[in-house]
Amino acid sequence: AQSVTQLDSHVSVSEGTPVLLRCNYSSSYSPSLFWYVQHPNKGLQLLLKYTSAATLVKGINGFEAEFKKSETSFHLTKPSAHMSDAAEYFCVVIAKNTGNQFYFGTGTSLTVIP
Amino acid sequence: DTAVSQTPKYLVTQMGNDKSIKCEQNLGHDTMYWYKQDSKKFLKIMFSYNNKELIINETVPNRFSPKSPDKAHLNLHINSLELGDSAVYFCASSHGRVNTEAFFGQGTRLTVV
Predict the structure, then answer these.
(1) A42, B97: Cβ pair inside 8 Å?
(2) Cα A49 to Cα A59: distance, rounded to the nearest angstrom
(3) B contact test, residue of A44, A57, A89 with most B CBs within 10 A
(4) CA-to-CA distance for A32 and A92, rounded, in angstroms?
(5) C-beta separation of A95 from A104 below 8 A
(6) 3-state DSSP: chain A helix, strand, coil percent, rounded to 5?
(7) What would the pLDDT profile of B78-102 be if each residue is shown by its tens digit?
(8) Pick from A15, A44, A36: which is nearest to B4 by CA?
(9) Which residues in chain A have their CB less than 8 angstroms from residue B96's CB?
(10) What is the pLDDT of residues B54-69, one digit of tens each?
(11) Confidence of residue B17 (pLDDT cuts 50, 70, 90)
């Protein structure tokens, strides 16, 4: 079975400080993992993806994530938060054995304080 | 040249009505999906089609019927709308191979009154 757990439903940071959004996964197979961002009243945009290549993945807008198999984690980080980063973030795992179904975490709402 | 486009973006309708949401992708993908996002932002798969064939059909009321006339289109028809159907519905597409991301439409906000 595949699933992801986003450990924080809300994260609040000050502008210019680091961002850490946590995600743990469960997968019967070698997983493919993604982070998507959803700005208010917008669709979902891919931030970055892990597909069994390099474990440290760089994405758009300065975000990156590290795949740690021993910890079954795929945490999203950014060195310095910007006001435009305020959004909902989803960690997603793909399930090879169920028709490539994408399993979404429950989301983490990021607030950036000026 | 939007990759995945849904229409309409907003839909307000009365209980008991029948409505459709259309989705088209111009990415050449062979797999398309419908997701429902509830008021708590949780996204749940409803249907998935690969090459016009249904491959995922989660526990969704029979009032929801997807239709895929070709690989580039996956429409969602909803009969006898209920208040609980109010949500944002997202269409998505992917290559259908493992390791590839899905591309999402902008969503359709359905409000049933």
Answers:
(1) no
(2) 8
(3) A44
(4) 8
(5) no
(6) 10, 55, 35
(7) 999 999 999 999 999 998 766 689 9
(8) A44
(9) 100
(10) 877 777 899 999 999 9
(11) very high
Residues in chain B with CB shorter than 8 Å from the CB of A100 are: 31, 48, 94, 96-98
Copy the structure tokens of residue B17.
């009505």
Which three-class secondary structure state does DSSP give residue B107? coil
Amino acid at A35: W
User: Are B70 and B52 in contact, with CB atoms under 8 Å apart?
Assistant: yes
Residue B23 to residue B96: CA distance in whole angstroms: 17
Q: Do A106 and B94 touch (CB under 8 A)?
A: no
The residue behind tokens 């795992």 is A93
Asked whether residue B34 carries a pLDDT value surpassing 90, the answer given is yes
Contacts of range A54-62, beta carbons closer than 8 Å, 24 or more positions apart: A59/A35, A61/A85
| Tokens 């006898």 -> residue | B80
Mean pLDDT (whole number) for A34-44 = 92
**pLDDT of amino acid A36:** 97
Sign of torsion over alpha carbons B50, B52, B55, B59: positive
Q: What are phi and psi of B84, to 5 degrees?
A: -70, -10
Distance of residue B63 Cα from the nearest chain A Cα, in angstroms: 22
